[in-house]
Amino acid sequence: MGAYILRRLLLIIPTLLGIMIINFTLVQFVPGGPVEQVIAQIQGQGDVFEGFAGGGQDAGNLQADDFTGGAGGSSKYAGAQGLPPEFIAQLEKEFGFDKPPLERFITMLGNYMTLDFGESYFRKISVTDLVLEKMPVSITLGLWSTLIAYLVSIPLGIQKAVRDGSPFDTWTSGAIIVAYAIPGFLFAILLLVLFAGGSYWKIFPLRGLTSDNFDDLTAIGKILDYLWHIALPVAASTIAAFATLTLLTKNSFLDEIKKHYVITARAKGLSESRVLYGHVFRNAMLIVIAGFPAVFIGVFFGGSLIIETIFSLDGLGRLGFEAAVARDYPVIFGTLFIFGLIGLVVGILSDMMYVLVDPRIDFEKREG
């Protein structure tokens, strides 16, 4: 197992490299880069753009009027006509675009090897600090949603398999299908309308992870306040995963229950609980564990943008979206690198969980 994990860890390097190459190449052809974003703001706000920090330099007072030379001619940047060429050149230098793309990419990878993800173009803060600032929201949604989905779905799926075809199985299947058919964002809005002061009850808060007086609360008060705030967002982000996991668990148990070793165990006089949880559980849970990375990453990253927007949570989903809109390349590539690394590591952890559940699995022999 050790050699297999080492090989998987080494494969992270070329995988991340491929991800970064593809996305860096695509970005070169996307219009509306950071230079054009600055130009657009200058044109719309009186030739002044404040709060700009690019290339590690402070250019907060950069103005087109500081450069002489008259109106510029044609430019490769949309909206740059009429601006001095020296001003455009200075913008390119501040953003690092005065260097060839290959040189910029190699420099970026070299910095990433030392975990230096650069500084946001427009926020005057390092990408690492920015991610750490937004991480608690996404961790809250991802971990709680995944944990609740598994804690509810696995027992429910087992009961549906044991009582297959019963009225309990029928009405729970109907409820699961309805839950799966409801989009997460629509369910989130429904929760707001019903329980956050929309049109009915004001039971839960409308936004944020904590109250304004959070620091003044006792330890127990802080825990309750935190749980009070995350109840609706977590419920909205869990609904789809809950439905999928329940049906996956049920079908997996049904397949195992029909096998000969289960019939043999029952013939020996073992109790039903011993058969289910002592023999069937390990084999049936393999496919459920295999889906853990997809569930966790999907909740952690995929659905976080909509949920964070609806519940006014400032997390990684909104950070990535705003960075893409503003063409804040250090934030885009930094978060892409971090997210990709987390996804690959979670995949390795999933394989390790396979072995914990069923020690008979040996990935090294399978590869050999």
UniProtKB/TrEMBL annotation:
Q: Which GO terms describe its biological process?
A: microcin transport; transmembrane transport
Tell me which CDD domains the record gives.
TM_PBP2
**Membrane-spanning ranges:** 9-30, 137-158, 170-196, 226-249, 284-311, 331-357
Key words of the record: Cell inner membrane, Cell membrane, Membrane, Transmembrane, Transmembrane helix, Transport
Q: Name one GO cellular component term.
A: plasma membrane
Residue span, ABC transmembrane type-1 domain: 135-350
What InterPro entries does the database record attribute to this sequence?
Answer: MetI-like, MetI-like_sf
Superkingdom per UniProt = Bacteria
Membrane topology per record: Multi-pass membrane protein
Its annotated compartments are: Cell inner membrane; Cell membrane
In the record, the note on similarity to other proteins reads:
Belongs to the binding-protein-dependent transport system permease family.
The protein's name is: Inner membrane ABC transporter permease protein YejB
What organism does this protein naturally occur in?
A: Shimia thalassica
Recorded name of the encoding gene = yejB
